[in-house]
Amino acid sequence: MNNLTKMKIERPANEVFEAFVDPEKIGNFWFSSSSERWEQGKIITLRYEEYAAQGDITILEIKNNNKIVFEWGEGHVVTITLHELDHSSTIVEVNEEGFRETDDDFIHQLVDNKEGWVYMLTCLKGYLEFGITKLRAGLVK
């Protein structure tokens, strides 16, 4: 089972792509740090200093300015696809696969996951369109 989330960002695909893969930029909207530039085959350590948490992702596929595929958690594969509409706007599509319909908390997992991707994309939009870097890690559960 998968979970799909989309958002329009008023920036060209190359800027959106770099926000994800460049460790100097990702801390402005998502994780507080990334161990290195995202490239196919690499294992990247992502940290949330605010939550004293970290985790590794494995980059499965990269297509410059178009697609990022990584695996995290227990068998979850995330595909971030960038659909450039023109030279100034991009649809960012996040598709996460690996949810099991037989899990007791299946619906909760999907809703929680959707909230997370919507929040991350909102922070990305704020960062790239308006230079806002203080939204990241502001969500309280």
TrEMBL record:
Q: Do you know which Gene3D superfamilies this protein is assigned to?
A: 3.30.530.20
Residues covered by the Activator of Hsp90 ATPase homologue 1/2-like C-terminal domain: 12-129
Q: Which domain of life is it from?
A: Bacteria
Which Pfam families does the UniProt entry name for this protein? AHSA1
Q: Which family does it belong to?
A: Belongs to the AHA1 family.
Q: Would you tell me the protein name for this molecule? A: Activator of Hsp90 ATPase homologue 1/2-like C-terminal domain-containing protein
Record organism: Brevibacillus panacihumi
Upper classification of the organism:
Bacteria, Bacillati, Bacillota, Bacilli, Bacillales
